[in-house]
Amino acid sequence: MKITFPHMGDAYISVKVLLDELGLDYYMPPVGSHETMEIGIANSPEFMCLPFKKVLGDFINGLNNGADTILFGESGGQCRMSYYGDLMQDILRSMGYKFNYIHFNFSHLTYKEAARNLGPFLTGKSKLSVIKAAVNAGWTVFAVDKLYALSRKIRCREIKHGTTDKIMREFEQKAQTVHGFKNIHRALTEARKELKHVEIDKTFEPVKIALVGEIFISSDSFTNLEIEKKLGNMGAYVHNTMGVSEWIFKHFIKYMIPFNRRDKSIEAAQPYMHTDDIGGHGIYTIGNTELLSHGSYDGIIQIYPFTCMPEIIAQTTLGEIQRKNGVPVMTLILDEMTGETGYITRLEAFVDMLRFQKEQKYEEKNQKEPIKHPKLKHVS
User: Tell me, what's the pLDDT at 362?
Assistant: First the structure.
């Protein structure tokens, strides 16, 4: 049996670690493939969201390249994503594909359930080896997200433009080709060391932008048109609130601890929604926007796929939060028809506005020196 799985941002790195450490045979669809995306779009209902189309394209690509087992995880709740797995199965089977389908409900995932679903692949493997593989994969999730967070801090301050992008591009190439936890660990260590040696302008004060919204689009650079990289190259520091590790911490690690399950973002959203769930990650979008509007961030960007109902609901509150707290909020809605040129123009305009406002606030405090900042860079 050969496994295939879909992409969501950098999550493929930890999935590779898990499968490699377990010694399982798999095929990984190409990362950031426009051709695969087109296949998914062509075989999806027209008004399904971009994540659905991208995942379906990855499945088709995997099955076309020898895979006979699909590994897919989704969460329950009010979001339509809880039905995606069933709908994708129906589409694939109607196309004539025959495959095994391993489904994980991440809202209620336990070791027992995972072992049951992966049972045929774990024959002859000790429980200790399985746990070790899972721990290594879990460590990788957090280590990779920390690396990308470091790159965001460096990119907006680098003196030689493009240095951070080059280091991260080389890391991603290694992550896609090497096998096993040790090699991934080595690639992470090397990339981290290189980033720390990048020459930066320590006097530069970037505008600070928080990214909120639907987790797939927020964390997947291919579908969000590399928003973190684009903003960083415009001289903006980006804090992404919806990384994969953040999701794991909220939904797994916190619930393993028998106390202190208080979620500040859900609490912050209560004055606007009076509920702890509006589907997907909509409640976190509202809560994080409220919380970060009181911090050191100059602006907030909500990003989500076209037709995403939880984020549409969340968006209705953002204007009120902006008026109350005075922090600009911009919403970006993406689908396969989104033009990159117009997308870049909106980001440039937003960053330019935030920089102007930051300078105005600085001058109002009667400081002698203006804020040092580079001219707005145009990203090709």
Answer: 76
Please, what are the domains in the chain? 3-136 (3.40.50), 206-380 (3.40.50.11900)
Q: What is the pTM of this model?
A: 0.90
pLDDT tens digits for range 237-270? 999 998 887 777 766 666 556 556 678 899 999 9
- Kindly compute the dihedral angle of the four CA atoms of residues 13, 15, 17, 19, in this order, to the nearest 10 degrees: -150
The length of the chain in residues reads 380
How is residue 37 written in tokens? 């995306």
The answer for residues whose C-beta is within 8 angstroms of residue 121's C-beta and 6 or more apart is 1, 3, 22, 24
Contact partners, residue 293, CB within 8 Å, separation at least 6: 300, 321, 322, 324, 325, 326, 327
Distance (Å) of CA 357 to CA 84, 114, 169, 300: 43, 50, 33, 14
Helix axes 34-42, 50-64, angle to 10 degrees: 100
SS3 content of the chain, % helix, strand, coil (to 5): 55, 10, 35
Q: What is the DSSP string of 170-182?
A: HHHHHHHH--SHH
Q: Phi first, then psi: give them for residue 330, nearest 5 degrees.
A: -115, 140
Query: Of the candidates 351, 226, 224, 210, which has an alpha carbon nearest to the alpha carbon of residue 287?
Result: 210
Closest CA to 380 of 232, 237, 230: 230
- Extract long-range pairs of 113-121: CB within 8 Å, 24+ residues apart: 120/1, 121/1, 121/3, 121/22, 121/24
Cβ burial of 352 (10 Å; 0-12, 13-18, 19+) is middle
66 vs 53: CA distance, rounded Å: 21
Cβ atoms 237, 207 nearer than 8 A = yes
